[in-house]
Please model this.
Amino acid sequence: MNTLTSLAASIDGQRFWDDMLEQAKIGALTPRGLRRLALDDNDNKARCWLVDQGRALGCEAFYDAMGNIFLRREGQDPDLPPLLIGSHLDSQPSAGSYDGTLGVLAGLAVLRALQANGIAHRRPIEVVSWTNEEGARFAPGASGSSWFAGQREAASILAAEDDDGVSFADALARCLERLDAHQVNYRPDPFTPFAFLELHIEQGPVLESLGVPACAVQGIQGVNWYSVTVQGQANHAGTTPEHARRDAFTGAHALITALREAVAEHGESVRFTIGKFALEPNATNTIPQRATFSIDLRHPSAAVLAALDETFQRLGAKQWSGCTVELKASSRVPPVEFDSQLVEMLNASVKAYAPDAPQLVSGAFHDAIHLAHRCPTAMLFMPCRDGISHHPDEHIERDDAEIAVRALADTAGTLLGR
Ligand code: GLV
Ligand code: MN
Ligand code: MN
Model:
């Protein structure tokens, strides 16, 4: 007889993989990859697809005020706080089809196993897809999970605008209308889950190099995002002498050099990325009057991030090549350590399949970085080829994925019985 203790063995690996292939069609790029920007048409379609899968299993589907989607399978004691499993369905602009979706569909695989085998459980279980984890369209990322966990106010999330000037509020309103039309139940407010589990691709090279199919994750490094504007003066590129120029690109270049030097003082563990950069008016023969760029800064130590934050503010208050600067932090998310008991449970579940599995600290942020402030939280990683993600070449091996899902189900089975 299948019970919670055999939940891992009850996972239907073929069906899980079919789900992965099916979702990858929503927003598919040619010749490969995925584009499902938060709250765009494809992201909303993916939500409805997930709701349909849950309903076919007899689960109730809910959406909340941020468009987060929940599939609930009732427990024998409906009043107990549910175990929550999930991740996100949105993607980077030119992405693979595993980042985020893996964690949502791993949760769905657990629901399928419970349903197909008629396994009863004391505690309810909910599978969640969080809104705008990536932050590629609306910055910063992890909107749905940070709001749910009480880490960010709705007002600041709703005010964000994409590059076309569409507000998060407007895009969300269209998404919620669609969910309403799909007759998904509205459950506006956050709640406190019993625990949150998230399976994700590692997005780095370690597991692949060790030949290990999965591992428990101990925590996530901190991440600060900044938006920077360097203001100069536009003028003719051919006639304006050096002493009369206030070139916003030259100013940005000097500032960025100083920022990089400050970062380098903190050694190898710092991550500093300028992923967006724009010039105005953006003409070959006009000196740029304005440069705008983003900064993504990460480190496992809160103290190092705080020190760099102070340095960035000081450098941003100076003039560079005669240009003024506005340097604003759009988000500061400190590092987190996951719940040690949950990490140990996941570690034990993994070790049944991979005795040599290490434990890692995540370099990428995940929805779990916020959930950790709301309830006991932990994560599992699985390898991705060459450590590549945020790119259409992102790839995982089916056998590894199946093991990772079984390890997740093993810990989920224990928690559902508590
Ligand atoms: C998440 O996508 C991250 O940038 O870490
Ligand atoms: Mn992700
Ligand atoms: Mn990502």
